[in-house]
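Before relying on records like the one below, remember that each one covers exactly one chain. Contacts with other chains, cofactors or solvent are not represented anywhere in the record.
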Amino acid sequence: MARRYDSRTTTFSPEGRLYQVEYALEAINNASITIGIITSEGVILGADKVFISKLIDKANNFEKIYKIDKHIFCGVAGLNADANILINQSRLYTQRYLYNYNDVQPVSQLVVQICDIKQSYTQYGGLRPYGVSFLIAGYDVKEGYQLYHTDPSGNYSGWFATAIGTNNLTASSILKQVMDECIVSVSSFECKPADLCNFLTNRCFPAFMCTSSSHVIHFPISFPAKEWKKDMTLQDGLLLALKTLAKSTDSEVPKSEKIELAYLSNKDGELIQKYLTEKEIAELVKVYTEKYVKE
């Protein structure tokens, strides 16, 4: 039955689903990972590259991260051919805004314009959705550093740190604070909250529910391994980006030739948009190895 509804983008299935949009989302989930992180000193985009060859002109080849304007850049996951169309359109929007108003376009306004295009391709017949998601990062005076995620349906959302592409859930779990409930069984000593606090080294709150007969205590626990922090420096953000890319690709040490890294920062009122070279990434990997791998 579902086959009758697959071929047309604008036709809902009996369950109220648009299969072509879901297929486009699946194409993104199969693409290599791209992450974005906002820090106190700038916004960072990192990505895992697919195409690696000694014959590629690395100085003129950007597979996952693209400049849109001096204050906006973006990371992609999905079909690069589709991404190129929307990136060129984004550049056109920002230049038109600059020409008309003699000022840079607000980041959020550009995001809405791109999502309007994406949404229209899910509504009109004879078209297919764009098979690409964006992480659009930028800076403006009103909102400061910003990071937005857009998907093929035309939906968008703002983030402090997020990931798109394959293993994005793994990456997101590294970026966010983990809250859990822990059950500790105590059979070798008397159940005393003070002893437990010392035993768990500040991992618990003083809210215990203890049954002395079973010596099983339930309490909330906040793991100190909170990776993303709002006040983290740009250097810490770059190292976190490397760690997230390494963990999400099942690598202990990230390979500099497989990584794209870029950041946007505002230094003394001047915007700096930096795309790290392979040599610069290799130096950063050395710092990462000293901090995380040799612990």
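The first helix runs from residue 3 to 6.
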